[in-house]
Design a protein that fits this description.
Length: about 325
């Protein structure tokens, strides 16, 4: 294994770690906000479930990222290195700013930027579909979370069903765990899709490496963005946390099943906003939402530019 291959795998691990630091909040931030678990316990739950998701269900999205936008086996390895460094750096910076951001958008931006620079034949139909579905994701999550919240409220109002309150805490944790599983499955493509598409690692090995990297990110720095999701969009009860996580998990898992890379950040913010709407638009903290939305718009453009600059630098030295 040559040095360039090793560097690419290390950078894929770096992206996986960055995903874990940013997306742990998406999976369990609402449970923490509802007071059902601690930041540290939540991070470990995400770490374990993300690893499972990556290994068991990560294949479809990894193929889409690896060859569905630009055929990674047909472009120079240093361009893959540039994309992975750009995505990892950008997501890490957003994590330190405590902002949830889409790693999918970061990777797609980097791949598209380098693909255009090299004239590698960007598959614009696939790219447009992923981009549009990315913005549909929070809408789906918002609607699902809103409906789940309303449905649960009606069931809980019936006296024979009051016993379900005892199990609500467990329902919140399980929905968060399911979301973490879906996150691991969907984001394996972002950390290891280009590595797999370039035939540098097999799918199973890449699943273990990428999943472990996401888990490491969750337990080392995952609590930072968790504070934003848990309390800075809207105040959460156990009921609303369950609705937000369940709605988000449904949206992510459905898209993962069809091999569509999407964003758990998009999904959980939509889910939290959905339950916030039940309590009234006034309960939503609009300044936080505006900052998050600005980051989403900036992400693909910023990572495309960063990846192009890095590629030009690496061309000189590698």
């Amino acid at each position: 294994m040559d040095i360039l291959t090793i560097l690419i795998i290390i950078c894929g691990i770096f992206v996986g770690w960055a995903i874990g630091t940013n997306d742990a909040a998406n999976c369990m931030g609402t449970a923490v906000g509802a007071g059902l678990t601690s930041y540290r316990k939540a991070a470990w739950i995400v770490a374990f479930m993300a690893l499972l998701g990556a290994v068991i269900s990560g294949r479809a999205v990894a193929k889409t990222i690896g060859k569905g936008i630009v055929d990674s086996s047909a472009i120079p390895l240093i361009s893959i290195l540039a994309v992975l460094i750009a995505a990892g750096l950008y997501v890490t910076i957003m994590t330190f700013l405590s902002l949830p951001v889409s790693t999918t958008q970061a990777c797609i931006g980097g791949i598209s930027g380098v693909g255009l620079l090299l004239g590698a034949g960007v598959k614009w139909f696939t790219l447009t579909k992923i981009f549009l579905l990315g913005f549909v994701t929070p809408v789906i999550a918002l609607v699902c979370s809103y409906l789940i919240y309303k449905l649960y409220a009606r069931i809980a109002a019936l006296k024979p069903f009051l016993f379900i309150e005892k199990f609500l805490g467990w329902a919140v944790l399980l929905s968060g765990a399911f979301l973490a599983y879906s996150m691991g499955a969907n984001n394996l493509g972002n950390s290891m899709g280009l590595v797999i598409g370039s035939n540098l690692l097999g799918m199973f090995t890449a699943g273990i490496v990428g999943g472990a990297a996401m888990g490491l990110g969750s337990v080392t720095l995952g609590t930072r963005v968790m504070k934003t999701i848990s309390s800075r969009i809207t105040e959460l009860s156990a009921h609303s946390a369950f609705a937000a996580q369940a709605g988000s998990a449904l949206a992510i898992y459905a898209l993962t099943y069809f091999g569509v890379p999407t964003s758990t950040s998009f999904s959980i913010v939509g889910g939290v906003a959905g339950v916030g709407l039940v309590k009234g638009v006034g309960t939503l903290q609009k300044d936080t939402l505006k900052r998050i939305l600005a980051g989403w718009v900036l992400t693909p453009v910023a990572t495309a530019i960063i990846a192009i600059i890095l590629f030009k630098i690496l061309e000189v030295f590698v």
